[in-house]
Amino acid sequence: MNKYRVLIVDDSPTMRRLIRTLLENDPRLEVVAEAGTASEARDAVNQHKPDVMTLDVEMPNMSGIEFLKRLMRHRPMPVVMVSTLTKKGGEIAIEALSSGAIDCIEKPKLGQKSDAFANLTDTIVMAARARIQIPTARSNKPAAVRQRDFRRICLLGGSTGAVDALEKILIRFPKECPPTLVTQHMPKAFLVNFAARLNKLVSPHVSLAEHGEELKAGHVLIAPGGDFHLNIQAKPVVRATLHAGPNVSGHRPSVDSMFKSAVDLAPNIVAGILTGMGRDGAEGMLMLKNAGALTIAQSKETCVVFGMPQVAGQLGGVEHWVDIDELGDELLRLAEVPRTEICK
């Protein structure tokens, strides 16, 4: 079996040694080089042509975020951010994911154990297999402004790679967009910063969902994560509900939980499933489709990880496959298609 070639970038020799030890114990991985600065990392990329890179945020002369952005412009490749700042500085983690990083892992403090590092090798292998979507310049223009009569609620679910995908979708939404709920696999602290970033970036109002909040045009509600799934209550008024419970399909918040809760409203739903590892959302999407919802999935060619959409398609739950740059406009078009009068 060919091993994935890894470049470790960190200004701490001790941390580089720890990461190397962990990676070299995995038969799927081979550490081909280390670097302590951005310039060393650039030279190592050119010389060793690694399959995947671990990258620290805090480095001398040039930060890891700035190096990541330059790397994605000139030599795009899979990158996993490994830093103390990815936890306490959620804004930095979201910026890294938006700039093309596959995932962010918290670096343990010296002398302390880290649960996150227990998954480090699996995360790096997953990243090495991912398709890299080169971040593109964001258009600040929503879809053409005209009077639109949206009849459907939009439900969107994603995981690995979906931070960038959701930004590309929601930047196309007008200020008075369809009521929209989003479940994204991400730690609670990251979701707070993700919602705040989107609210500054797009025309609709974006916030973390609150229990009992009524669904309204122009509002995008994001699952807050932590102990809760984001679900829908159909009666007496269509509302978002936060459901405390165990993981569903391996996750909390879960896309399947959100999709399945909306089955009673299916004729008034357009459900989208985005890039991500695993199968969360696939069963719920099939249930929605069978109950009368319109369903859409991000195309294989534009997914970072074609896991969740692939399984949804294999089960028969996907009606439309769309490239990510066109997915926002297509969701809006489908949201205008009426079937009943539950949600006007």
Automatic annotation (TrEMBL):
SMART domains: REC
GO MF annotations, alphabetized: phosphorelay response regulator activity; protein-glutamate methylesterase activity; protein-glutamine glutaminase activity
CDD domains noted in UniProt: CheB_Rec (cd16432), REC_CheB-like (cd17541)
Entry keywords, A to Z: Chemotaxis, Cytoplasm, Hydrolase, Phosphoprotein
Matches recorded under Pfam families: CheB_methylest, Response_reg
EC number: 3.1.1.61, 3.5.1.44
GO terms under cellular component: cytoplasm
PROSITE patterns, per the entry: CHEB (PS50122), RESPONSE_REGULATORY (PS50110)
Active-site residues per Swiss-Prot or TrEMBL entry: 159, 185, 280
Keyword set includes Phosphoprotein: yes
Reactions it catalyzes: [protein]-L-glutamate 5-O-methyl ester + H2O = L-glutamyl-[protein] + methanol + H(+); L-glutaminyl-[protein] + H2O = L-glutamyl-[protein] + NH4(+)
SUPFAM superfamilies (UniProt xref): CheY-like, Methylesterase CheB, C-terminal domain
Secreted listed as a keyword: no
4-aspartylphosphate carried by residues: 56
Residues covered by the CheB-type methylesterase domain: 142-338
InterPro entries (alphabetical): CheB-like (IPR008248), CheB_C (IPR035909), CheY-like_superfamily (IPR011006), Sig_transdc_resp-reg_Me-estase (IPR000673), Sig_transdc_resp-reg_receiver (IPR001789)
Post-translational modification comment from the UniProt entry: Phosphorylated by CheA. Phosphorylation of the N-terminal regulatory domain activates the methylesterase activity.
Entry domain remark: Contains a C-terminal catalytic domain, and an N-terminal region which modulates catalytic activity.
Family: Belongs to the CheB family.
UniProt-recorded name of the protein: Protein-glutamate methylesterase/protein-glutamine glutaminase
Gene that encodes the chain: cheB
